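Researcher: Next sequence.
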Amino acid sequence: MASLGRQSGSAPLPSMATRAEAVTPRLWQRRSVRTGVRLAAVYTVLTLGAIIILIPVAWMLSTAFKANGDVMLFPPKWIPKPFVVRPFGEAFQTMHYFRALRNTLIIASGQIAGSLLTASMAAYGFSRLRFPGRDVIFFVLLSTIMLPGTVTIIPLYILFRHLHWLNTFLPLIVPSWFGGGVFNIFLLRQFFMTISEEICNAARIDGCGHIAIYWRIIIPLGLPGMITVFIFLFMGSWNDFFAPLIYLNSTRLYPLTLTLEWFVGKYVVLWNQLMAGTLMVAVPPIILFFFTQRYFIRGVVFTGVKA
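Model: Next structure:
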């Protein structure tokens, strides 16, 4: 029988390995095509979204270098002709830029320092200390996020008026030193929980107390989270318009955001100067973000991932 099988001219059947080798390249080719189409669709959507977002920025840049008479032309001219830089000088003088910048930096530095210190201490307590009712207190703290800020405007204004703090920087800075903000506490607590407990236990064995652990271990290892909160605080303080409008009456104390209102008159708006001033106000946060985006992305990614 074996000899008959060998003498027959039938070709041997392909083995399973041979068929798998033939099928595998085709599968990989189909998967690569699907992946390429999916990535192309994603990049197309992201590109369109980026273009839509950048259109107002491009219009701001174009208007800032136009003469005031060319701002409302139709159809609009995206490339200014003539190209003028006079609106920047006029906006610089009208805003009293250096004085407004100093006021903004004073407010921002006071708010950031107080919020980072108190929020990080509260976050350390909620992430590392064990005490009865900790989770309940944290839940109640988080529930205050649902309270609109407008609800507390009148009580706070009355309080600061009795303290004779109106028309000073105190109402804008002092509250940041008492808690640091619920969102900041939550963000730092979630990041601190990613730090290994064994490191803190080793520090306790070496004789470190809570203050030493907080200052020497938690803060250095939690630096990305701290920088993330710093960016949020800086952006919020730099762009804040409502709180300074409520508590500040003297123009010499105005931050940059309030000085932009000077270009909006009762009957006319100086659009080129307004866009030039807006550009001068927007550039510092953009520069800060580009220098710190690596830590910002790391802090956001690792927040909420428990070790």
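Model: Residues 44 and 50 are 10 Å apart (CA to CA). The chain has a mean pLDDT of 84.
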